[in-house]
Specification:
Shape of chain A: globular
Number of strands of chain B: 11
Number of strands of chain A: 9
Helix content of chain B: under 10%
Distance between the termini of chain B: 40 Å
Radius of gyration of chain A: 13 Å
Strand content of chain B: over 45%
Order of helices and strands of chain A: EEEEEEEEE
Strand content of chain A: 35-45%
Number of helices of chain B: 0
Structural class of chain A: mainly beta
Oligomer: heterodimer
């Protein structure tokens, strides 16, 4: 059950768009539509921002979008805002019936 | 509104045991799987376990399989994590979370409970 692979850090300027990748295998990301993304500000509980690859929970900004191709899922944040600065984690269902997180990506808004 | 409140965290010696509780309110508890996740100091999120509606199926991450046991009490809207054979590597903030009815997302999280395992 290896963690999914995410870049350690990404950065962008306000108003720009950034994409965070999440790479797994065909036993997790590539095999199922159950990929979710979380935003985590230090000291707060993580927040679900996407589930089933592309679906946004009620109240989540449409600046957050998701996609998946083969074994890699991606989170795109458009129109970057200062408040988007946080850690982002992907998560996938696996063929073992378990869940697995990515290592996390720190987003810096310049 | 949905609320999840963890309790039971604290300081424990290596080799010891601890039981975390998570009290849920604001939703129909029996309609959701429940899950535990942790974050060690300076590390990322690690999924630990989830339990289905009526405790018929439970799943665990490799790092806790055989040592931790998840359970739920649907009459009291609570989920538990029994943690045994604790080591320093288990030092972390432990979160309980509700699993979405579709898509296996973790849509509501508690505030977290700190578990510190001393050598």
């Amino acid at each position: 059950q290896s963690a999914l692979t995410q870049p350690a850090s990404v950065s962008g300027s306000p108003g720009q768009s950034i994409t965070i990748s999440c790479t797994g295998t065909n036993s997790d990301v590539g095999g199922y539509k159950y990929v979710s993304w979380y935003q985590h500000h230090p000291g707060k509980a993580p927040k679900l921002i996407l589930f089933e690859v592309t679906n946004r929970p009620s109240g989540v900004s449409d600046r957050f979008s998701g996609s998946k191709s083969d074994n890699t899922a991606s989170l795109t944040i458009s129109g970057l805002q200062a408040e988007d600065e946080a850690h982002y984690y992907c998560n996938s269902y696996t063929s073992s019936g378990t869940l697995v997180f990515g290592g996390g990506t720190k987003l810096t808004v310049l | 509104q949905v609320q999840l409140v963890e309790s039971g965290g604290g300081l424990v010696k290596a080799g010891g045991s601890l039981r975390l509780s998570c009290a849920a309110s604001g939703f129909t508890f029996t309609e959701h799987y429940m899950s535990w996740i942790r974050q060690a100091p300076g590390k990322g999120l690690e999924w630990l376990s989830y339990i289905r509606y009526s405790s018929d199926y439970t799943y665990y991450g490799d790092s806790v399989k055989g040592r931790f046991i998840i359970s739920r009490d649907n009459a009291n809207n609570s989920v538990y994590l029994q943690m045994n054979s604790l080591t320093a590597d288990d030092t972390a903030v432990y979160y309980c979370a509700r699993v979405t009815q579709w898509g296996l997302g973790l849509d509501y999280w508690g505030q977290g409970a700190l578990v510190t395992v001393s050598p």
